[in-house]
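Margin note from the TA: students keep mixing up input and output lines. Inputs are the sequences; the output is the structure of the whole complex. Example:
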Amino acid sequence: VKPVAAARPYELYYWPGLPGRGEFVRLALEAAGAPYVDVARLAKSKGGGVAALLKALGRVGPAQPFAPPFLKSGALVIAQTANILLYLGPRHGLVPRDEASRFHAHQIQLTIADLVSEVHDTHHPTAVDQYYEDQKPAAKKRATAFLATRLPKYLGWLERIVAASGGTRLVGRRLSYPDLSAFQLLAGLDYAFPKAMKRESRRIPRLRALAAGVAKLPRIAAYLESERRTPFNQTGIFRHYPELDR
Amino acid sequence: VKPVAAARPYELYYWPGLPGRGEFVRLALEAAGAPYVDVARLAKSKGGGVAALLKALGRVGPAQPFAPPFLKSGALVIAQTANILLYLGPRHGLVPRDEASRFHAHQIQLTIADLVSEVHDTHHPTAVDQYYEDQKPAAKKRATAFLATRLPKYLGWLERIVAASGGTRLVGRRLSYPDLSAFQLLAGLDYAFPKAMKRESRRIPRLRALAAGVAKLPRIAAYLESERRTPFNQTGIFRHYPELDR
């Protein structure tokens, strides 16, 4: 993984205060040692804050994002988490060079994105824009079904991919951006569903080893210790509601 | 849009009997005039059927798909609808050549995919793998919230993208794969939520004109008249439950 000397730092736009989908992008930028500005976490006096995010989001144009996260790289504006990683991967050596590996990496990333959406829906099953407290009975049903069938299916699939790729990484034997996302995925699931994940862990030894290895990468280890890392909390995708775990 | 003479026809793997996510891929293949085999709809005696799909899905390897649709192109196996279109687009002139347009097209496609998942969850809010009939009260809540806020937000965004791109297409002024998906999206929404879509239509004149234009493309018009086109029904993503419309 080599840092690329960018003409200007990337600008990452994401909601401050929660790791959310933005964190998958941050981990790639940090692993690459790429200079970036986390715009909404920058002081308002320096042109940052939520106001700067909303202003950029509201700008009408062909590349207008539907939602954060989005990344500015020079004149390019790229939205959708997996799309941003598709862009960053080849620029920072975070994906192999061959075509098959690139589509394979993106396929894994998109499947992780699907799983992340299903995690979100465990606490927001009936209305994305209403409070969890107003949809608790449906959330209990959704979380129960998620933990019983969907979570084991996704994790088992990821474990098989690691095994088939040589046993240590998701794409071949070197670090790629889906590995970073898998680390974040497991960290989030451990936070949200500690009981269920304790049970699942026996079945995903390779995925667990992969995630532990990502946490020890020098740049990632330094990042996780820094103030740039946002801890999980009850406003993000991964939330710990004990009544939804089992 | 020029057809590319492929060494072998593509092999598309998707559940037979429902348009689902596979239809977004079919529309691109049909618009390109690309030869393909719709494996699960092929006779079992010719190596097709659901058995062939399940066999391919169960094959363990690094590129193992999580779920259909997936496409075989020579030795490549590509899963995830948007990823397949990312692959097909440049090969068949269904996306502009410049980098910005390609990431822009993919961003739109991924946002359409998010909307498609939200449509699915209107009839499956609490358990992906249980019957609609067993989650009707939550479905009513989810559909109500979807039609009130999410659907207008997504469609309004798509309409603005068309306006900002020159008024006739989603990416610049020529046909690209997100246009084909937008056609299918509106067709599915019209089937599932005719009342809500009648209201929404006034606000999306450019998107409506775009979709009508796609339906008249010679290859697409011929496809829509053919037996290869699967009509919407109550087993797919877009289902018409009158009690969920309003």
